[in-house]
Amino acid sequence: MNERKYHIRIASEGRALVAIDDFRLAKSAITVLLGESGIGKSLISLAIAGLLDPDELDVQIDGKPYAAYLRSQEAIDIRRNGFFVFQEPSSHLNPLLTLRAQLREGSLAAAPDEEFILKKLWQGSVSSGVESILDVYPKPYRPSGGEKQRILATMAFKKMAASAAHAQESLFIFDEPTGNLDNRLRNEFLDLLVENFRNRMTTIVLITHDYSTISRFTNTYPTVSNHILYRELLLEHRKLHLRDFLPGEYISWLEKRNATTRTAQKTETVLRLQPHVKIFGRTLSISRDTEGRNPEPLLIRKGTVTYLKAPSGVGKTTIVKLMMGLIKPETMSMELGSAVYSEKTDRNVWAQHVWGRQMTMVFQHADEALNQNSKVKDVFNGLPIAGPLNEKTIVKSLSELFEEELVRGLLETKVKYLSGGQKQRLNLLRSLILRTDILILDEPLNGLDFASAAKVIAMIEVKLQSGIGVLVISHNEEVFDTLVAAEDIYYLHSSNPNRTLPDTSKR
Amino acid sequence: MATRTFTGNSWLYNLTSKKDLLWLTIWIAGLGVLWIWDALFLNAPAFVRLQTAFLNSLLTGLMVVLFSLTLGWFLGVSLNTLEHSKSKVGFAILSFVTDILRSIPQIIAVLIGYVVLTILLHKGIIRSSFVQMVWIAGTIAIAVFLEVADTIRQRIDYFRTLDFVDAMLCCGIKERRIMNVEILWKNSRSHMLHKLIAIFGISIFLQCSIDFIISVGLSTDVSLINFPMTLGNLLANVDSKQDILALSNLFTEPGYVSVIFTRHLQGLSVAFCIVFSMLCIYMIANGFVRRHKLA
Fold first, then answer.
1. What ipTM describes this predicted complex?
2. For residue B9, what is the nearest residue in chain A, using CA coordinates?
3. N or C: which end of chain A has fewer CB within 10 A?
4. pLDDT digits over A308-348, tens only?
5. Which of A363, A367, A440 to mutate to test the interface with B (most CBs of B within 10 A)?
6. Which element (helix H / strand E) includes B197?
7. CATH for A262-494, options being 3.30.1490.20, 2.40.50.150, 3.40.50.300, 3.40.50.720
8. What is the CATH number of domain A3-258?
9. Beta carbon pairs, A and B, within 8 Å
10. pTM of structure
11. Min CA distance, B294 vs chain A (Å)?
12. Phi, psi at A266, each rounded to 5°
């Protein structure tokens, strides 16, 4: 396979951000770029796409200044014939043009298939349909993140069609394009991606943390598997390098986990949430059937994982925040141990009896959940831990998810200097160190690489053995389904699915 | 790598890129030059008065900063705690009292403090100069500390809009610790330091303004002479006023410039000291905002 090898150096104000000597990009292939969040995947991709600002960053590609690279025919072709789908879709969309106008701007105007792509990407969505948003001027809060991602994907696929004649010189980069999509829509997107690739054999980079992509490609498109490369960006001994990731590593791990049949254990129920909760003028209901015909109380039992599923925007994060007493509902009834908690329960009761004692929660965005100006060792200060919290205890805890040789050096490091994946690991450890009866995990595998994700799953299993009850919200269904018995899977439904709830994740 | 005129380690690069430190250096250097000049040309009693006035103003300003920080921190955190408590009565009462205080113009509040100080001096309750300065600083602090309280509330409110507070609460970390340590100490020191620099500038300005206002005398027995020597006090002194008025001679007799910086040095020095200090403090605060990206 024809490959282009890059030597890339990116620095800011004298501080090295990225330095890699062996970044390989296969031509006329799909490269699935894996690796933990914040390690430099986006920055490297932006550099190759010619989208970094040479006045803001010191960039060198193949030992030459970035300005020289930007003038090269390679970079000109990429910019002219390629497309970059940004991780944060708001930064791509022009707030002064309607989405419809942006879908038909410039070379996209003559590109075919718009209606087909939109229809495919909007199938089964909880939103009211694509037509209602096409004449909207994009704002930070509207359309939703998932809708913006699908609009950008549509643009990218249209661009692929428009520049089909230059497929060999073009480069299409999709940076976490399905981060806000549920599994069904993610699969629709992946189908379109493979279909477009088959037709044009263009060069595609798909940056993702979602390892389910591997099984989707392997199981659904075995015929193109020769053209799909999995590569993982790793930081080892403080050096960044790219390694080939064999899909079998993930798939065999998954198969091994699936081999263990999970059956519901009749252990003691530690939490029971009545199936109807009213909040923000909407009723959220919980059931064990996907259609929501038979609402049932949500149970969390000792030593088991309860899995709450719903498409994006229905209110999964809202309902767990409500269970934690962080949001006041209009009506709610929850039994926790021998106490009953409702909309009338005072905040002080949660503070005195629940937070960090009976229940704890890991928030999905480690960037916000952690104090960026704290040193790593200070993240554990103030936790209600019975025993002594000395450096030895902290090192022991950190060693569970961090490489041992790194731990000592990390103690004095400020959180803001960690990569996204390291922050997420720290975020998890802060809650896992507590001895609560219930642990709530909101997207716990966010931003983690495969090795860390496997370690986290192993840690959750250890916690389960100690009798803790776990409630999980996660898009990584493929992974978490291996931890849960079918009876412990619940589905969340909303009385008004066309209206999304306010973003209680505060992002 | 892109080349730069100055390297990152160059002290000149450091100083020019950090405007706050640059202006702090200019301030200290300017005052140093003035001190040397006055040591050479100003008469000894006036030189002592000037030094005393400067040090007293500086000390009072620092006390204002300390008192404002203490009061502002306490009020800001208290208002935030009460706002999120079950009963809103405490919050309503404290907000009302705060709003009353806010409605009083700063200069009036300080003037009231001076009137009370005059009464205390009259009755012989307060005698020591230091206690008088503490009183003055306390009075000014009461007039300005709400600005610190507002900054503290803004910082806490900002972090409450993120998952930051909720995530820590869920781990059982006390709300008191989250506010005081995690938000204010670890994440708001730059914001507070900026506010305190501004408070220091305001306190110098208020001292001078009030000293000038009361230079006509607060009672038959109490006048500026009874108060500690400060820059405003010295500027309001008749000798200093005459020195400054002497500047008008330059319009009719430009050659007078040759003697003005030796013959009329007390008034000019104190005026320079005030104006130059105010300018430098303003520039330090602005530079600090830019360097720490606080705007």
1. 0.83
2. A14
3. N
4. 998 877 889 999 999 999 999 999 999 998 899 999 999 89
5. A363
6. helix B189-213
7. 3.40.50.300
8. 3.40.50.300
9. 82
10. 0.83
11. 15
12. -90, 60
